[in-house]
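Protocol step 4 of 6: structure prediction from sequence.
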Amino acid sequence: MLPIQGKLRFSDYSSLYDLVVRKDNKWRRLSELTDFSFVYDELKDKYCPDNGRMAEDPVRMFKYLMLKSVLGLSDVDLVERCMSDMACKFFLGLAPEDNVIDSSTLSKFRRQRLKDVELLDMLIGKSLTIAREKGIELSRTIIVDSTHTLSRSNPTMPAIALQKQSKILRKTVYEMDASLKDHMPEKYEGDNLEKEMDYIAKLLTFLKEQKVSLLPNVTEKMNLLSEMMEDITDHYTVSVDPDARTGHKAEDSEFFGYKGHLAVTPDRLVVAATMTSGEKGDGPELPELIRKAKIHIPDLEEVIGDGAYCGQKNLENAEKEKVSLISKLKPLVANEGNYARDGFSYNKDAEMMVCPAGHMAISKKIVNYKEEARKYQNEVMAFSFSATKCRVCAHAEKCGYKRTKTMRSGKIYYVSIPTQEQIRHRKEQETEEFKQKYRERYIVEAKNSELKHSYHLDRAISYGLDAYTMQGAVALFSSNMVRILRILDEKSGK
């Protein structure tokens, strides 16, 4: 049953707060700055109004999440900290002698009460509403960039994961019918993924013809192994985190996890954000960031971003939205129209193409093949992908790669070099006005660093894209609220 929003309960010890929690304490000021009743309004449909045991106050539970985001503690350590930290208890609206929740309650709140709630946009919007109420004007310029967040778990090499799962299946079969041991396909013990997958296919085919496959215990293991095969052909990596993917920070540097795409004002307030898996490119997220930003800044004038955002489609969208795109043109990003239809994308940090399955090209070179030159009416850049990955990839047919045992190279992808029109556009980037505005990009990079180090968005605290989105939403809201306090201090000369 949903309780009425709780307030600070006065007791004989309430005066301790005036002695211990100073008026300039961050948590005291945040508590006085914000009316958190919006949390109650957003989550009331998640509770039964008149039946069941009385639930914990959702406003207080949300405040626990804010404390967790800023302090970077586990649920257990956070609860222990709140029991003895008077500033935290004041922020939570507890009396000094009140007890705190059990750590499992916070876990259930995250997974059950916040499920299917548009938390990200709602919290960003609420923080900006508070900013306007305090007299803070939002700039007509936004700066966009992405930041990566590591998954809670690391990926496992596909061949090793398959070997472990096939071993479990064989062991289960032997327990049911030991006589099959001498008739099983000869197992593969190397690290070649293609050969391991061939062996798994033979093993599953053999077992389907045996009576033992009718047993539920064996069927479950077979289905799990078959599902793992499908996942590997789709994404290549294997992990307990179902939505995390491998992204690339540079040609020789990669990460496994997620990406947060942000739009911030020069005052370092986040006005829009999207959360994706790690392999997604930056450029395709720009239209959505502009759309969300214009909800709060209808008269948006400028968007500043790095070369990842200066693709042909983004230039056209910026013109449609009547905003100026301050982004340096990169040769291959500019020609995104040549590969967008096939699901390929360009990673501006590594300056390499990424295929629909999320694999990065392993090499590139300019080629002068006449047939390719005629096709693109220009010079072309050829990107080569790993044959080891292409041969077992479920997207091979879609991207045009033909599986052959004699083929030593993977998919080769061609992208045209800039046209004369794009070269003229690059000259416009040499103006002093453009250069001066482009220098403001450091603001969003500083914001990304702040979110990772001060709000612990460097690693996901749970599994799945929904959990990461919730974590990011609370971190962005907390960051905006603290930033509002700093802006107000600057205005008052503190």
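Step 5 (inspection) to follow. The two ends are 44 Å apart (CA to CA).
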